[in-house]
Amino acid sequence: MATxxxxxxxxxxxxxxxxxxxxxxxAWGGARMQWYGTLLPRIHDFVPADSILExxxxxxxxxxxxxxxxxxxxxxxxxASCVKACKERFADExxxxxxVNNGKSLDMIPDESMDFIFSFDSLxxxxxxxxxxxxxxxxxxxxxxxxxxxHHSNLGEYPIYSRITPFSKTHKILAKLGVMEENIHWRExxxxxxxxxxxADANGLRCISQEIVNWGTKKALIxxxxxxxxxxxxxxxxxxxIRNPRMMEEADTLLKLSKLYEPNxxx
Length: 267
Ligand SMILES: C[S@@+](CC[C@H](N)C(=O)[O-])C[C@H]1O[C@@H](n2cnc3c(N)ncnc32)[C@H](O)[C@@H]1O
Known about the structure:
The chain is α/β, with parallel strands linked by helices. The chain has a domain at 4-12 and 21-162 and 187-212: Vaccinia Virus protein VP39 (Rossmann fold), CATH 3.40.50. It has helices at 4-14, 31-43, 63-66, 80-89, 128-141, 160-163, 169-176, 193-202, 247-261; strands at residues 49-55, 70-77, 96-100, 114-119, 142-153, 205-213, 223-230, 240-244. Helix 5 (128-141) links the parallel strand 4 (114-119) and strand 5 (142-153). The longest helix is centred in the last third of the chain and has 15 residues, at 247-261. The chain starts with a helix and ends in a 6-residue tail after the last helix.
């Protein structure tokens, strides 16, 4: 369980951001490879867009790419130090608006103003009410034709992780036996892809696609990318779900390519 307070404590102080978040892209060969090889193939149909909102921007690992794909970018994060870091990093950009929020509210975003809403590698740590609260607000802030791409946890599909304390003796034994993953990357155990899809449906939205993936794990598909639109959107259709156990193979291929084609990139 990662409460809002824990998220704030970690990201707004305890965590030292040694490479501004790029450290989490190491398995892909760096943030550029992860962006061009893993993210852009999934979102290229939704960008460029006039207005983009990034929820939970951190130190701007994805902001650096999103800013060049829109006329107006808005970034929101619960951590004041993250927002400050982004303001400094993108000081030359005049089309970015910055907000520190309370970890829940998007009230600062005008109604029907966003063409594309993006959140990646952040809300995986959010508890169900927080995540669902954000999803609910998409209905108000998306333009009728707008699209959201939200990365969130699916760990709730595996109840064993809420019963066994992470890194306890029992966990270590079960990990050795292959019954549990060694590391579930602080994913939130109370969220499943199916819950998010049902919540969207109940709130005038639709997850038109969900890709359920492994994330640093061997077997467990602990994460999900949900593409969400309004039910009155021309893009709305029945939910399509795929289970993709090959995310880390994808990362591995990109890592190899980065060594070959980006020999000067710091990794
Ligand atoms: C692991 S970092 C990832 C940052 C960035 N997305 C990246 O991939 O580099 C998680 C970020 O999410 C933010 N965050 C966590 N929970 C949040 C919430 N409920 N609302 C807004 N921001 C949140 C944290 O402050 C932190 O900046």
